Amino acid sequence: MAIVEPLRIDVRDEGGGTIRVALRGDLDLATAPAFADRLATACDMNPFEILLDFTDLTFCDSSGIRACIIGSERCSTQGIKMKIVGAGEHIRHVFKTVGLGEHFDWETE
Fold first, then answer.
1. DSSP string, 63-100
2. pLDDT by residue (tens digit) across 54-66?
3. CATH number of this structure's domain 18-107
């Protein structure tokens, strides 16, 4: 049986109105609520933009995608830009498969 690494979420102020929310591990049914809470807290900091750093994200299921959508909508209503950076092709493919590839701004960094 594989050992699953819990999701690690680091939120840091990058300066210039940018908050980076970096994820390491799996974003799934068990970890999406913690991610949603941290993303809401980042939105409440009222930055110019939030970067969701998926460089070390190893897995994302529909629960994780849902948390991203809710966070994006919340940020948008507050006038905050949200971008996904560093996502591997397998993560981007999951978003594209469910028809949400164009819903988010993607950067490779």
1. HHHHHHHHHHHHHHHTT-EEEEES--HHHHHHHHHTT-
2. 999 999 999 999 9
3. 3.30.750.24
